Automatic annotation (TrEMBL):
PROSITE patterns: ZF_CCHC (PS50158). Keywords: Metal-binding, Zinc, Zinc-finger. It comes from the Eukaryota. Coiled coil: none annotated. Residues 135-151 form the CCHC-type domain. Signal peptide: none annotated. SUPFAM superfamilies: Retrovirus zinc finger-like domains. This is CCHC-type domain-containing protein. It comes from Araneus ventricosus. One of its GO terms (molecular function) is zinc ion binding. InterPro entries: Znf_CCHC, Znf_CCHC_sf.
Length: 223
């Protein structure tokens, strides 16, 4: 299993490395007498394509009405087809700007420019597809946020090693990725572990990112 995260109604999402692994896990759960009559297993809905739009001015589009106006201008300036465009969240950026993460209907994603820039009024905004796995800042695992972490007791885990302490207090001479170390322990694999959990060459990070691609509904004749 690559990642997990809790969801509403006492549910949990389990992320496997491949589709055959998903089916094996499903069969194991459904055939287990201890849990078969207590849980149900289903495949989650696909993920909409996401993009990150860089350097949107902070405060200029703070309200919901202004946010919708921003989206209408984006749609008009790029002659985008009908279909849902929504702001999922914003991230603080440099020089009084924010980076906006948008979810797009497949037909809208297919219609945007592939040149890495989007027209917006008299300006042009840089963007790229957003495929960054969610990582919990408490347990450092992928698939959920800190507010959803099931491991609520005790201190946070370190980003540099497998211990439970702040990174600034870490005494480890070399980094050890908690996620890759656990993956090796569970599977017998030999994934490199000499990196932090933040490293974007991390084997676990790359597996989860690849799963995001598989779960994304791009629509026909796209990707």
């Amino acid at each position: 299993m690559v990642a997990s995260r809790p969801i509403r109604d006492a549910g949990v999402v389990l992320v496997t490395e491949t589709k055959p692994m998903t089916e094996t896990l499903r069969q194991a759960i459904e055939r287990c007498p201890a849990v078969a009559d207590k849980v149900s297993v289903r495949t989650p809905k696909g993920r909409m394509p996401h993009i990150i739009v860089y350097n949107v001015p902070v405060g200029k589009y703070a309200t919901r009405d202004k946010e919708e106006r921003w989206i209408r201008r984006l749609r008009k300036g790029n002659t985008l087809p009908e279909g849902d465009i929504s702001v999922r969240f914003r991230r603080k950026a440099k020089n009084g700007t924010e980076d906006w993460i948008l979810a797009l209907a497949p037909e809208v994603f297919k219609g945007i420019s592939k040149q890495g820039r989007l027209n917006h009024g008299f300006s042009s905004l840089r963007y790229r597809e957003f495929l960054e796995p969610t990582r919990c800042f408490k347990c450092q695992r992928f698939g959920h946020m800190k507010s959803q972490c099931p491991d609520i007791a005790g201190p946070d885990y370190c980003t540099k090693c497998t211990g439970r302490h702040a990174p600034k207090d870490c005494k480890a001479k070399r980094p050890t990725c908690r996620n890759c170390a656990e993956y090796n322990s569970k599977t017998g694999a030999r994934t490199p572990t000499r990196h932090t959990v933040r490293d974007q060459t991390c084997g676990t990070y790359l597996r989860v990112r690849d799963h995001l691609v598989l779960m994304t509904q791009y629509g026909p004749d796209t990707k």
